[in-house]
Specification:
Helix content: 25-40%
Strand order of the largest sheet: 1-2-3-4-6-5
Number of helices: 4
Radius of gyration: 14 Å
Shape: globular
Distance between the termini: 29 Å
Structural class: alpha+beta
């Protein structure tokens, strides 16, 4: 997956926006003000921090050592850093991004979740 594809995929989700609260290099993708992906699209290797169910986070780290690691500068229990251009199948990367988005949406107040469902 290229940086351009990663950015486009993150922005394809309902109400997803890109923000730069830390510096001009760090893209923060949010839904309803809550972070679901964080990356430097110019970095090599290309990595992205993604929210993950704690049990899945541990399993993924074991299945993909070096490519999925505890979240850099994040809560290590709930976040993984995923190397996007390092050999993981694009399908898996897309699933992990989508899972991160879904976990964040699930944690939103009910009224915010309902607003996301409206066209």
């Amino acid at each position: 997956m290229t940086p351009r594809e990663l950015r486009a995929f993150c922005l394809s989700f309902n109400a997803a926006v890109e923000d730069f609260p830390f510096n001009p290099e760090t893209s923060v993708f949010k839904v309803q003000g809550k972070l679901f992906a964080l990356t430097n699209l110019d970095a090599r290797p290309l990595t992205v921090n993604l929210k993950c169910d704690p049990e899945d986070a541990i399993r993924l780290r074991g299945e993909y050592p070096g490519l999925v690691i505890p979240g850099y500068h994040m809560n290590k229990r709930h976040w993984n850093t995923v190397t996007v251009d390092g050999g993981l199948p694009d399908r898996l990367v897309r699933e992990l991004v989508e899972d991160s988005y879904d976990l964040v949406v699930a944690g939103l107040p009910r009224a915010d979740r309902l607003r996301l469902d409206r066209p």
